[in-house]
Amino acid sequence: MKLEAIIVEDEETSRAILRNYIEKYCPIVKLVGEAKNINEALVLIRNHNLDLVFLDVEMPYGNAFDLLEKVGDRQFETVFVTAYNHYAMDALNAHASYYLLKPISIDKLIEAVDYVKEIKEKENSLINNVIKPLTNSVSGKITIPQQNGFEVIDVMNILYCQADDNYTHIFLRSGKKKLVSKTLKYFEDILSSNGFARVHKSYLINVNSVVSYNKGKGGSVTLANGKEIMVSPSKKKMFLAFFN
Fold first, then answer.
1. Is the pLDDT of residue 244 over 70?
2. pLDDT category, 138, cuts 50, 70, 90?
3. pLDDT digits 0-9 by tens, 202-230
4. Is 195 left (phi over 0), alpha (psi -120 to 50) or beta?
5. Chain centre distance of CA 110
């Protein structure tokens, strides 16, 4: 497949270096335009069905985060390219797929492109198809502590688990919610073999309860009860691997 992409970078020399690296080492990327500020970038984004945007942080007339806010919901993946490593957390919060530091490492660039390629291939394979989890429903139960003992829960009745510091909220198909004094990591360890996937630092979902996947921004899933949960870019590939 080809990834249609643009470069958003205000420095001409930096644009040229990245362009040359992409053309030489990333043949699956088709560059369809370049922009030196967020206004030019908005025009390109609105006029192309992009798969990938290589995005510098600091630019005239606003920065990368201003651009993404103006774009709103988006179908493309974002690779941040910047000389400043202190933007890493902001990039993560902006649902970036990858974060490249200048001077650009060719190996890291190839890695970033390959990562996006895997995501887009899996997303495209799901378009207009019925979602079928590859994992089989496994009959199993867990126990959660109660004041006077414990309660037994069928794991397939769990829709999702949500972290709350050292506690976890367990949401059931019945609409009931349980609060357990265990971390989300604890439940991830015991439920991962039962078709549960960690899609976000705060969420563990029952893959069999997923009714749709939405490509916008970092991606999100809608569960059987209508709950929409964001999929972290770092978890997206692992989650998509549950589906054919």
1. no
2. very low
3. 999 999 999 998 886 668 999 999 999 99
4. left
5. 19
Number of domains within the chain = 2
Q: Which domain holds residue 151?
A: 141-240
Q: Say what the pTM is.
A: 0.67
Helix axes 233-240, 106-126, angle to 10 degrees: 50
- Burial class of residue 88 in the structure, from the number of CB atoms within 10 Å of its CB (0-12 exposed, 13-18 middle, 19+ buried): middle
Task: Give the pairing type, strands 149-154 and 141-146.
Answer: antiparallel
Domain final residue pick, 91, 126, 161: 126
By DSSP bridging, strand 196-200 and strand 203-206 are antiparallel
Closest of 27, 26, 35, 31 to residue 112, by C-alpha:
26
Q: In terms of domains, do 230 and 119 share one?
A: no
CA distance 215 to 221: 9
Largest CA distance in the chain: 69
Q: Quote the pLDDT of residue 217.
A: 63
Q: Cα separation of 20 and 15, whole Å?
A: 9
CA distance 237 to 218: 11
In a domain, 211, yes or no: yes
Give the torsion sign (CA, 206, 207, 213, 219): positive
Write down the pLDDT at residue 227. 94
